[in-house]
Amino acid sequence: RELSAAETEEFSHVFKKYYPRLCHFSFRVTGCRALSEDICQEAFIRYWNYRHNIADSEDAVRSYLYTVVRNACISKLRHDKVVKRYLKSPEAAGTDEIAIDHAMIRSEVAAEIHSALEKLPQGCRQVVQMAYLDGMKNKEIASKLGVSVNTVKTQRQRAIHLLRSSLKPGTLALLLFGPF
User: Fold this and answer.
1) How confident is the model at residue 89 (pLDDT cuts 50, 70, 90)?
2) Cβ-based burial of 125 (10 A; exposed 0-12, middle 13-18, buried ≥19)
3) What does the pLDDT look like over 18-61, one tens digit per residue?
4) Burial readout 11-49 (b: 16 or more C-beta within 10 A, e: otherwise)
5) Using CA atoms, how far apart are residues 21 and 89, in angstroms rounded to an integer?
6) What is the DSSP letter of 134?
7) Half-sphere exposure of residue 87, counting CA atoms within 13 Å on the CB side?
8) What is the rounded CA–CA span in Å between residue 36 and residue 55?
């Protein structure tokens, strides 16, 4: 059956919001981009087929999708472990569910940071992305953008001020001081 306009809009909203996060999470667990995309697509198919059994809230939908992707990743890792054991591969490693949970949290943090960055003015966003995500120095940024180093410093300070109001302190610290 063909989807109604409301159903298409509902699916589109959920897909746009969670697909990048889930792919990031799945990729961090599996290490394979194609596999992570397959897992996430299957998760959305499963979500859509069972959406009427899921509470109608953002938290319930997010929880359901992450659980489906997490379980699919664990199943894939366990399957790979059995195959490696069967082939007597020396690098057969155990499934570390704590690492999987950490990957899920990192994906949510990354999504939160990217969402906050999208709300910044263009100049601030460019400078922050180049400085904190690409690891460029102020002088490199100034040269690439064709502005003064003082302009870069001003944009960074302005961006940090704006991000403080939209990000939790721990999330902001991850952006400023470490890879997320």
Assistant:
1) very low
2) middle
3) 999 999 999 988 888 999 999 999 999 999 988 888 888 888 99
4) eeebbebbbebbbbbbbbbbeeeebbeebbeebbeebee
5) 32
6) S
7) 9
8) 26
The DSSP letter of residue 67 is H
* The pair of three-digit structure tokens given for residue 107, joined into one six-digit string: 């994906």
| Cα Rg, the chain, nearest whole Å | 20
Q: How far is 7 from 13, CA to CA, in rounded Å?
A: 10
Q: How far apart are CA 125 and CA 127, in angstroms?
A: 6
Instruction: Please enumerate in sequence order all residues whose Cβ is within 8 A of that of 113, keeping only pairs 6 or more positions apart, or say none.
Output: 167, 171, 174, 175, 180
Q: Phi and psi (nearest 5°) for 159?
A: -65, -45
Which string of b and e fits 143-165 if b means at least 16 CB within 10 Å? Answer: eeeebeeebbeebbebbbebbee
Of the listed ranges 3-7, 111-115, 126-130, the one predicted with least confidence: 111-115
Closest among 167, 160, 176 to 109, alpha carbons compared: 167
Rounded Cα–Cα distance for residues 22 and 107 (Å): 7
pTM above 0.85, yes or no: no
> Which amino acid belongs to residue 69?
V
SS3 assignment, position 117: helix
- CA 63 to chain CA centroid, Å, is 15
